[in-house]
Amino acid sequence: MARVDPALAATRTAVRAELADLAPDELVLVACSGGADSLALAAATAHEARRVGRSVRSRGHAVRAGAVVVDHGLQTGSDDVAERAAARCRDLGLDPVVVRRVEVGRRGAAGLEAAAREARYAALDAVADQTGAAAVLLGHTLDDQAESVLLGLARGSGARSLAGMPRRRGRYRRPFLGLRRAQTERACTALGLDYWTDPTNLATGDASAPLRSRVRGAVVPVLEEVLGPGAVEALARSADLLRDDADLLEALAADLLAAARAAGAGGDAVDDGDAADEDGAAAALVLDVAVLADAPPALRRRALRAAALEAGCPAQATTARHVDALDALVVSWSGQGPAHLPGDARAWRGCGRLFLAPARAGRDRVPPATATTRE
Questions:
Q1: How far is CA 339 from CA 114, 232, 331, in A?
Q2: Partner of 317 at 20 to 30 A CA spacing, among 54, 160, 248, 356?
């Protein structure tokens, strides 16, 4: 029997583990850009989809494997790159192969990279819904995970951001989070697959290049040179540990939010002027301040962030500064006005309660007078 290249074998083993729980004939889609990571993923999926669950005791079964190629339209010739990626997927035997062109809006403080990511996942979700796919495989590697941790550190993010990308979330799965990018490149070479290299990943000295590309090309090599070749793996291990911590803290914070909500709904009656905005609309969330104030800061702040998201604040735009403003209404309230939140949501305090209201058409952002003067 011919010896299989170790890198190629590693990609197949990783994919096999992520397909193991799929039922016969279920559809799995590979998100493929034509780069080494996603093309190696497409090849491994095409190979393993025919033998899901196979072992020495079982012949196993087959699942269907297809692909989605998202063309962001951000570079000249991106349509040709997308079509070549789709052709390679078809040559590998994937079916269906869907090419989806998206419009990327250059909006918001998060910038073009965040807008492109949002458009990409919207397209993947739409195709998965249309085809009835049970899972969507993403080609993120251990290198991508390390880069995510570094970006989170640079931005002063909390544990959830530093935890990086989960191996699974909903229908999305990342088989290659334990593999290095060099392994996916070697797997493509072993199969004779010509992969595409995004030119922005080569422009590491260009200030206009995506931030992740500059981290990849300029920061990570220095870390490995100074700290040793295990630096990337260490960053990924830190992400795994922080993810466990973040999962526990968020579960406890959810319990705290539920308790604050229950207490906010009971107790002393709330004056209508405190519980409504100037248009007379009731707050979407009413939380008991005492319950929140008695909680450890790590749980309280997570609960307040979750409350802000529930009130309609966009997750990407809701920063530590906004959580600080909510926390001040709980533990440092001295009659100050409302906290203005992303998405035109807002929060105010009155009658021992914290009120959060989503955006409302025509609202002039001025709080009810009673909300700033009554407790």
A1: 25, 40, 14
A2: 248
Query: In the chain, count of helices (H) and strands (E)?
Result: 15, 10
Strand partners, 29: 66, 136
CA distance 79 to 84: 9
The candidate with the shortest Cα–Cα distance to 214, out of 291, 69, 113, 79, is 113
The DSSP code sequence of 187-221 is HHHHHT------GGGT-TT-TTS-HHHHIIIIIHH
CB atoms within 10 A of CB 314: 15
Give the SS3 label for residue 100.
strand
Beta bridge partner(s), residue 317: none
Helix H or strand E segment including 301 = helix 297-310
Choose between 277 and 251: higher pLDDT: 251
Residue 375: band (very low, low, confident or very high) from pLDDT cuts 50, 70, 90:
very low
Residue 286 tokens read as 């009413």
pLDDT, position 368: 38
DSSP 153-177: HHTT--HHHHT---SEETTEE-GGG
Domains present along the chain, CATH in parentheses:
6-244 (3.40.50.620), 249-373 (no CATH)
| Two tokens, residue 200 | 């922005």
Q: Could you write out the DSSP letters of every residue in 265-276?
A: HSSSPPPHHHHB
- At 277, which helix (H) or strand (E)? none
Whether residue 256 contacts residue 305, with contact meaning beta carbons closer than 8 Å, is answered with no
- How many of the other CB atoms lie within 10 Å of CB of 15? 28
In tens, the pLDDT along 302-333 reads 999 999 999 999 887 888 899 999 999 999 99
What is d(CA 114, CA 109) in angstroms, rounded to the nearest whole number? 9
Cβ burial, residue 361 (10 Å; 0-12/13-18/19+): exposed
Q: Which helix (H) or strand (E) holds 71?
A: strand 64-71
Q: Which amino acid is at 100?
A: R
